[in-house]
Amino acid sequence: MRDMKQRPAFDLSVTRPDILGAEYLGEGTNFALYSDHATRVELCLFDETGEQELHRIDLPDMEGGIWFGYLPGIGPGQVYGYRVHGPYDPEQGHRFNPNKLLLDPYARELRGRIRWDDALHGYQVGQDDLSFDDRDSAAFMPKGVVVDAKFDWDTDRAIRTPWQNSVIYEAHVKGLTQLHPAVPEDDRGTFRGLGSDAVIEHLHRIGVTAIELLPIHAFANDRYLVEKGLSNYWGYSTLSFFAPHAPYLKSGQIREVKEAIRKLHKAGIEVILDVVFNHTAEGNELGQTMSFRGIDNASYYLLSPDNPRHSFDTTGTGNTLNVAHPMVLRMVMDSLRYWVEAMHVDGFRFDLASTLGRESQGFERDGSFFNAIRQDPVLSGVKLIAEPWDIGEGGYQVGGYRWPFREWNDKFRDDTRAFWRRDPGLLPAMSERLAGSPVQFNHSHRPATSSVNFVAAHDGFTLWDTVSFNDKHNDANGEDNRDGHDHNLSDNLGAEGASDDDGILAARRRRVRAMLATVMLSQGVPMILAGDDFGNSQDGNNNAYCQDNAISWLEWDKADDGILTAVEALAAFRQEVSLSQSRFGAAPEDAQDRQPAITWLHPRGGAMEDGDWQDGELRCFALHQSIPGGSEVLILLNAGDDAEFALPQGDWRLRIDTSADEVAQDSPAEGTVPVPWQTVMAFLRVDRQPE
Hints:
This is Glycogen debranching enzyme. InterPro entries: GH, GH13_cat_dom, GlgX_Isoamylase_N_E_set, Glyco_hydro_13_N, Glyco_hydro_b, Glycogen_debranch_GlgX, Ig-like_fold, Ig_E-set. The protein is α/β, with parallel strands linked by helices. It folds into 3 domains: 21-146, Immunoglobulin-like (Sandwich); 163-278 and 325-577, Glycosidases (TIM Barrel, Alpha-Beta Barrel), CATH 3.20.20.80; 597-685, Golgi alpha-mannosidase II (Immunoglobulin-like, Sandwich), CATH 2.60.40. It is built from 15 helices and 29 strands. The strands form 7 sheets. An 8-stranded parallel beta barrel has the order 12-13-14-15-18-19-20-21. β23 (620-626) and β24 (632-638) form a beta hairpin. α9 crosses α10 (427-434) and α13 (502-521) packs parallel to α14 (561-576). The longest helix is centred in the C-terminal third of the chain and has 20 residues, at 502-521.
């Protein structure tokens, strides 16, 4: 980095408005920031610690709302921020305040952390938000760092695992590794731990093809949590869409992310990022001014159409990013492409994705964001997963997205939990879930892999807690157990919480194995919450967003090897028989080329009849599936008591039995077979081999 005693001067012959952010071009750095309503933009250069501001220089040029300038001699390691001038007129949506140092939305790496102070507010705390605060916030703000994008990827290429072969593992960078005894202690909680041999070995064992990471974009530990001694563990409070969260980096440098991704790719494992483009860490109009609000509040955020002084909130977090604005949309698209092209990630899960489709008339499945993704030659080829809801009107949109998006399917979660809880009358719903939820997804040329099937995710009970608690126990969150939802569809099977009763523990293990089998043997894409594969508990906390501690960290030393072995066997069977297909199944007489033929069977033998589906007390049935050019399998579910089931004709072998501790079987089965209570069985017909 150059000697900063002399004030740097811009070279107007080189400067470029088309590259947003701070882009190192080999001999200097081009700085560019979008603010349509600003009157002046100052680039602030700091020492390497980020604590001393050395120079303020006006960006010299502006075109189309992009303020830009090229500084020769400024290179990687330079710490910087912005001060943006313009009208302070909250009633018109403008909140410019040059006393507030602002983080570049395109910053690739951050230096320092947020230190909560009233100076971070653009108004005077204690007065209303129409007031103006003239304190300098630089001492309390993280800053951007100019980076060198060079990295030896060593022939790394995208894996492109077909959706029908994918098994997703939802995990948290820190929570996955913090207590892992085989991860070097200094690497725990970081990307180096994520890319460790121990983690990769575990993912291989259970057949994982893609790890889906909770937010790794730089995020804020909200002030109200810090003041309660808690923290934003999940990370759904984004501060920067380009920079990784610094505490996950052992050295603070982004190359650690690349090194972890490169190592996971060499192991055949894709990396999917959970991204939060629906809102930011700045909150509503009473929140802080740290980036977007001070750069151009009226452009970056949706504001109330009746009174632009107020934020328009469809996310429940205080603000909503204005993705319909072309330059905000560009920022989102630039971020996604950056993580694919520069960081080599393989896909994204979009938090509260319905917000991204909100146009003037509400949610639009053909909105600007979705159409931009679909036509993009880079992004349309990676894995795209929508969380298909938000809290706004018309926000619940399960099944409402177009290809190439897949969707989290909460109907699968709820019906599966209720079925195994022995709720009555759920056979019709469970048949839908086993078949890939065609009512929701078999339209608009969508494939049978459109549904991402899960029974637990980061938000809610873990799977083990689903069979261990009737009620949530969120007291550690400091909200008198009022937070978190009450619709858990759980059953403690005889004791609330931990138990040393052998009968209760056996029942819990059996139900957990049955629910995991339902996920792994259904059409669609299975997703397992990290830790559910070995019985991890959060002590009944179903909203552990603020628990960066042993409540949320995976307790590897308490792993139930029987559950782990079950997941291993289920994943192997799923791949062996090519169970998942890209086309939805049909009745044998209606099945066409390359379409699975499916029949629903009653325990007495033969196909289910109309009256059978209306039998509210029937809890045992089977899916008979003939896979084109492949195997013939029978998936049998019994959520009730011990029963007997008449197998169809053929030479069948029992390959999966979740009632047994070993789970995987390989024994002949014919005629009428006993089906133990709360069990999933999978049979393979061996006299009809794949072509």
